[in-house]
Amino acid sequence: FKQKTAYEIMPSLVGSEMCIRDRPNGLQGVTRFGFSVGKRAGNAVVRNTIKRRTREAVRHIPIVDGWDLVFIAKSRANKAKYNQLLSSVHNLLEKASLLNMGTTSQE
């Protein structure tokens, strides 16, 4: 028995700076996130910066509960500013119909 990875079982949506893989997790009120940046994006400092910016962008967008989401940054994300990453994340979540329009983000 071989356990399947998230890359094998989760469909993906592609944006300009990143793509997203999503699937329902069956947990009421819990949405889990993963962030992946390949070595092509740059050295460790650059990759961690991309992850921090993406994590912060996700924090400010209201998302529907009950999903597992993996954000995978493309190599061009290393040149993107925070606002570009925020826009990319928002557009991908909108494509996936995962935006929670009933509430506002908590800051």
Report what the structure shows.
This protein is an alpha+beta fold and 107 residues long. It has helices at residues 6-9, 44-59, 82-95; strands spanning 12-14, 18-24, 32-37, 67-73. Helix content is 32%, strand content 21%. A four-stranded mixed beta sheet has the order 1-2-4-3. A hairpin with a 3-residue loop joins strand 1 and strand 2 (18-24). It is globular, with a radius of gyration of 14 Å. It starts with 5 loop residues before the first helix and ends in a 12-residue tail after the last helix.
Give a concise summary.
It contains three helices and four strands, in the order αβββαβα. The N and C termini lie far apart (44 Å).
Strand neighbour order, sheet with most strands: 1-2-4-3
| Spatial gap, N to C terminus | 44 Å
The total of helices stands at: 3
Uncertain regions spanning at least 5 consecutive residues: none
Portion of residues in helices? Answer: 25-40%
Instruction: Round the mean pLDDT to the nearest integer and report it.
Output: 86
Secondary-structure element series: HEEEHEH
Rounded to an integer in angstroms, the radius of gyration calculated over CA atoms is 14 Å
Q: Name the structural class.
A: alpha+beta
Outline the biggest β-sheet.
4 strands, mixed
